[in-house]
Amino acid sequence: MPRPSLQISGLTGSGDDGWSLFYRARAMKAAGQPVLELTIGEHDIGTDQAILDEMHRAATAGHTGYAMVPGIPSLRRAVAERMSAATGHPYDIENILITPGGQAGLFAAHHAACDPGDRALLIDPYYATYPGTIRAVGAIPVPVATRPEAGFQPEEAALTAAAPGAKSLLINSPNNPTGAVYGMETLRGIARVAEAHDLWVISDEVYDSQVWEGRHVPFAALPGMADRTLTVGSLSKSHAMTGSRLGWIAAPAEVIERLITLATHTTYGVPGYIQEAGLFALTRGPEAEAAVAAPFLRRRQMVLERLDRQQVLSAVPPSGAMYVMLDVRRTGLSGAAFADALLDECRVAVMPGESFGTAAAGHVRVALTLPDDRFAEALDRLFQFATARACAA
């Protein structure tokens, strides 16, 4: 048969796409093994019944045909109002494109920012799909490492060193996988680099409703940055609507105009009944988002309390998002080896830090996504395993 294209064949770079342990854990569960899974950012609650009722109402009312490719006007307007309130910058309907989830938004945003062969910066550690998303548009991913000692905050000097010749910079705060929430000095440093090197900034803000310490500042809120920022948002995390695949890009109108053309030739929009449900979800206000986020703050505390009672594992306390990154190097294992052995011996699945870049090596990411009693059991197994390995090392 003909050979698949080099571009599609090379999305994962030199090999593993970062998800092999997740696939193995799911295969074990499918075979009937009782795995406690702390891998992906999937809520342990379903989408709220009232949102599902609105989705059903919209579907039975006839919103099952082609929807407007840019998104239904009422939802675009609601997102624009949300962005305006968050940033202080005036967004209108022409600044918003509704996308099939945040991942599609990241893909489209890089298409808008980069030509084939362009250098596209991203912060390391990064969400596992980021490099492949950049390669998918023909650009070259250039990781910029952060340090645990600096709270995994991007440092201006490192960005400045990587920026010459780049076209874009992908940032993510609150951050997956580290839980870092970028402070004002970090954001100002990013802004200085973006301005000095004329970079597009693609700001992944899908965890903006999950902040435990400090506050989330949208990058487009910084002076002069809205005109060079493509903000990606989603209802997946804020409203437990992961499977609904409903996100957006907020950007200058001339960029959105071109992205609508891209959507016309790729996704052709998002089902209308899902958009109607998303609009309803947004009208429920911050109280509904806080209720979805509350279990993750509680489970974060469960991890921190256990960390205080032992000397093997350590962590930079996450300021946001639904994960904790644990440093496992005192066990003598890499993050990948730790995660593999934990799954085999204890039937607990976590993501190896190496799935998220070189700066996350020697760590594992724990998703705070099981009900409290099962989460406590998984943590107990994990910490006991780590202690035993450290003693044997």
UniProtKB/TrEMBL annotation:
Reaction(s) the record says it catalyses: L-aspartate + 2-oxoglutarate = oxaloacetate + L-glutamate
Cofactor(s) for this protein? pyridoxal 5'-phosphate
Q: Pfam families recorded for this chain?
A: Aminotran_1_2 (PF00155)
Q: What class of enzyme is it?
A: transferase
Which GO molecular function entries does the Swiss-Prot or TrEMBL record give? transaminase activity
Give the transmembrane region(s): none
Q: Which UniProt keywords apply?
A: Aminotransferase, Pyridoxal phosphate, Transferase
What range(s) does the Aminotransferase class I/classII large domain occupy? 35-382
CDD domains the UniProt entry points to = AAT_like (cd00609)
Give the InterPro entries listed for this entry.
Aminotransferase_I/II_large (IPR004839), AspAT/PAT-like (IPR050596), NHTrfase_class1_PyrdxlP-BS (IPR004838), PyrdxlP-dep_Trfase (IPR015424), PyrdxlP-dep_Trfase_major (IPR015421)
Q: What is its EC number?
A: 2.6.1.-
State whether keyword Transferase applies.
yes
**What family is reported?**
Belongs to the class-I pyridoxal-phosphate-dependent aminotransferase family.
Give the protein's recorded name.
Aminotransferase
Report the source organism. [Roseibacterium] beibuensis
